[in-house]
């Protein structure tokens, strides 16, 4: 079990920001399971509350996973709190590249698979998001990560995002699709 509390004095306004987060994980040998939950609280915005769950297993050399998250209809989505990591188990490449990727009042489902190959790890992820902002968002990610040396790591990612936007003002907006390519090199001192 882990828990955290973030505090920002006079964040964006004269009011303070508080973020509470916790998760619990269990390793049953053949599978792992985890749940998470938290809240972003600020007097000038509606509180953001989120919940997530995941289950995973390894068969032969293939890691398989299923994850689910729910974020309420607040002013903020569950934004990143530490570099490119996210508090949600359903984090995808688009979440890291597009702020709060259609995750207001949202349910998100993720299916993932990965294996070690070519001196690194390759993984594929499919994500489906249903929210009040979008009729549906489908995302496919393909990520390869490796350590070139003990200090230098490299990751390459491709993401395809397709969104059907809710036409709230009847202007004919229907959404669209986008392709993302991301390359990251990390040097550890």
Compact summary:
The protein has 189 residues and is an all-beta fold. It has one helix at residues 93-97; strands spanning 2-8, 17-27, 31-42, 48-59, 62-71, 106-117, 120-131, 134-147, 152-165, 176-187.
What does this structure look like?
By secondary structure, the chain is mainly β. The chain has one domain: Porin, CATH 2.40.160. Helix content is 3%, strand content 61%. It has one helix at residues 93-97, and strands spanning 2-8, 17-27, 31-42, 48-59, 62-71, 106-117, 120-131, 134-147, 152-165, 176-187. The longest helix is centred in the middle third of the chain and has 5 residues, at 93-97. The protein is globular, with a radius of gyration of 18 Å. Residues 80-84 have low confidence and may be disordered.
Outline the secondary-structure elements.
Layout: E1 2-8, E2 17-27, E3 31-42, E4 48-59, E5 62-71, H1 93-97, E6 106-117, E7 120-131, E8 134-147, E9 152-165, E10 176-187
Antiparallel strand pairs: 1-2, 2-3, 3-4, 4-5, 5-6, 6-7, 7-8, 8-9, 9-10
CATH T-level fold name: Porin
Q: What's the shape? A: globular
Please report which band the strand proportion falls in: under 5%, 5-15%, 15-25%, 25-35%, 35-45% or over 45%: over 45%
Q: What's the CATH first level?
A: Mainly Beta
The amount of helix comes to under 10%
Uncertain segments: 80-84
The total strand number stands at: 10
Radius of gyration: 18 Å
The largest pleated sheet is described as: 10 strands, antiparallel
- Order of helix and strand elements from N to C terminus: EEEEEHEEEEE
Indicate the CATH architecture: Beta Barrel
Distance between the termini: 29 Å
Q: What is the CATH superfamily label?
A: Porin
Number of helices: 1
The whole-number mean of residue pLDDT values reads 83
Structural domain count: 1
Largest sheet: spatial strand order: 1-2-3-4-5-6-7-8-9-10
Structural class: mainly beta
